[in-house]
# Entry
Amino acid sequence: MNNSKHFSNRRTFLKSAAGIGALGTVLPEAVLANNPQLVSPDPAKGHVFLSEPYLQYAGPGSMTVRWIANLPSYSWVEYGETDSLGQKAHSVTEGLVDAYNRINGITLRDLKPGTTYQYRVYSKEITDFKSYKLTYGKTIESGLLRFKTPDEQSDAVSCLVLNDVHDRPETITHLLSLKGNDPFDFVFLNGDLFDYQTDEQQLIDHLLTPCSAGFAKEIPFLFVRGNHETRGKYRSELPQYFSNPSGKSYYSYTWGPVHFNVIDTGEDKPDSEPVYAGIVDFDAYREEQGRWVEQVMQSPAFKKAKFRVVFMHIPTFHHNNWHGPMHCQKVFTPLFNKHKIDLCISGHTHKYGVHEPVANQHNYPIIIGGGSKDGTRTIMKLKADRKTLRLSMLLDDGKEVGTYQVTAKR
Ligand SMILES: [Fe+2]
# Structure
């Protein structure tokens, strides 16, 4: 019967995708039912987009476009320097064009740096998928949108930073309304956007929708986990919805005069804490990142950059001395001091503040963004040219509550 064959194909695909191998392990139906790539959360909605397109950083001369469809589809992006577009990209994995999926991430490559492109996304429903007979249904498309590619050689970069939104999407909308008219190249989401991960709808409603409405259809955002994103039954699905330069939860990139290092600081309590029930292992992961940071900080990109900025959700100092923060301090502070970073930007404590360098502790300033409650929420504006890096922190009433300025030493 067609349906059973179809289901068995899906099972085979899932086994190999999960690296389970051919030893006969059969995935439980519950796992199949929960695979977000294959299973529509709401078939009754039909063939519609569940999210608008949202841009993720990929690199100079490239851009990654993401979006979510309701039904498994074949999806692509058409793009070009004019509104007639003219070029097309889809995603290919090991010879297979990505298809019969819903969560899309398509990287447009060989773009001109610092150039404005227009684009439109398409999803063509696949109604039946047999060996030699694939049946397409209706195609849906987005409106015509635009973006500007990053330029690594640019003399300037600017970004906005949000943290600790904790499942309050209206906070994203409100804080973005305070940014004024200054242009910005990207938005950095510095962890704890959620309380804990429940499902795809939470991601759409509490993050993707306010971001797309505010900027993300035309300006990319980058995301790093906070400790809260490591919790809940949907925690392991998160990477399917985001793209960054390394494909891991920690990464680095250079944009204009700034080299950015992004660290995944993990949980705040010991891995052995009963509340984690034995399913986190962050000491080892922080140590892995320490070895990686040491390598990155010896790279030409890091050494040559006019400014060196670190994003990490949990700060290395000015915290509650719990295990996770203290382990961050132990693993990363010697590296930051030795390799002379210019600025560390964090969140987590829900107490915004600008902390000057402290001798024999941290030789670098630590900026901590605010919390999730009204009157504590902040947005930061970071701007650098080849001579000066400036940060301004605004409270949710629009008042500036912190500034920091660094003059280039290199
Ligand atoms: Fe946190």
